[in-house]
Amino acid sequence: MKKTLKKLIALAMMLALILSMSVFASADSTTTATAAGLTMRFGDTDTTTYPLTHPEANMRFTEREDGDFNVTYVDGISNYYPDTLAFTISSGASSISSITSSGVTVQPTVRNSETDYEPTTNVQQGFYILYIETASAGTKSCTFNTSTGSVKLYFEVPTFTPSTGSKICAFLPAPGQFTNEGITTGGWGDAYDGTTSHALKGNVATGVSLGYFGGYVVFDMGAIIRGTNNAYVSGGVYNSSTTPYGTDFILYGNAFWNNSEPGCIQVSQDYTHWYDIAGSQYYQGNCVSSTIEYQNPDPANDYSITTATNNAGNKLAVPYTGTNLEGTYTSVATNNFHNHAYFPLNANYFSGRYGHAELSDADTLPFATRTLNSNGITTFLELSGKRIKTKATSELQFGYADVHPNKTLGGTVSYNPYTPNTSSSTWSTISDGTSGGDPIDISWAVNSDGTPAKLDAIRYIRVYTGVEMATPPFGEVSTEVCGISVCSGSGSGSPATPTINVAGQNKTTTNGNIQSIYDLGTSSVSFIVTGTGNIYVNGVSHSSGDTLSFNPSSTGTIVQVIVQNGTAAPYITWLRLYSISED
Ligand SMILES: [Ca+2]
Ligand SMILES: [Ca+2]
In total, how many domains does the chain have? Predict the structure, then answer.
């Protein structure tokens, strides 16, 4: 089975910078090891084209008295061990007779291109992906048996105790009234809970406020453990189809009815490749890729603040420019309630406090870029994402954070995100007996072109402010995130398979997949979904048998159909309507 994996050697690129500045190793540790006729190292087979990055660049061998090797991860992050490592045996692989392991999956792999990997059963392949079971602490190992002996590698996984099963691993609010606020006391501008132990926030009443468009927080939900042929075993958040309504996690904000401040959501397995959660606005033409470049209004003042400081800095409006914006505003305005800098200060967001160096590198993720002056102070901060054009609760049916009120912060009981609701009274009825908040189905994740991402599980969840709006005199519309829970319980029944008729013909579809239909011509075609339960076409609720119309195109017009009945998971399918012939 051919699998397309991420570029493993580039995992967690945000960490590479700090690591490259301070890598050390004990005197007798090495980057290569030779034993049993094998020469071993971490990283790609071709390190000229693909130089080592984190974490492979941080792996060291130390020879033991028995001739085997301890493999250690050096520097960088405390209580951390990589869960996925590219591994090369540069000579002697043809002498390998078998591989045995405990707590490690050694996957021989053919590397077709930079991003395309194919598992193989040939143990003499010479290139391997090592999946280390990091969910539990202790010694993991693998042994390569060769015609001249054997060599065993030992991996010591440290104890790791996340605060609530999830933890913040990146936080960079855009400019806003809560940015820099309560920065040492667990306020809305702080990723830490304000206790003397400086724990990162889990499910808390005072969460994080993300500022203007693009400001974000990322949660690490734990390593995904995979077995043979990359199959999911445990960890992360699994894309369940057996939970009620198929939802997988619930995001909690601080919304009340008609005070939604919608955050868009992205998910990732590897911290490098990110997928949009296509909420109900995504296919309605109300979702556009936008970038804002914020200008630091006072870099000199920023430079003068050298340690994380509560409510610091000069209060100044933050000018911005960008692409695909509303056209209503040109700056993040200040107000009289929050008297401090609105631009994220260097000492507060790029200093990696309390041993969390990873938090200082938030701007190296693919959706954030900083321009620095000669003092290392941000002059421009660029943040990107899909921007939606409404904050009306009634228009945000599903797929966004900080939209629906919490019932029980941190609860795991999902309500049905597909039950149409248009008022606070219907919402209250709908969410009674549940945890409230905003339940999310990983099946909503899409590639950058809107086609299904088909993720079996995810590790990272990014929430970012999804609108470019302000409500004077109260300031910018800013998403708040107060926590995340993984959904519990079991739904009943099976997905409600619909009949989908396009241009007069019933089309065969499958749950979770996209179906291309060709030769539809350039005129609009009829589109009829017949099914039982809640029916959404491109995020809009419809009745069974409604006749809709869409315009086919030469690039394939994508239409998403969701049909959900009872407490079962939904049937989600995509059709791609081409005006032209195949090929
Ligand atoms: Ca699911
Ligand atoms: Ca809010």
Answer: 3
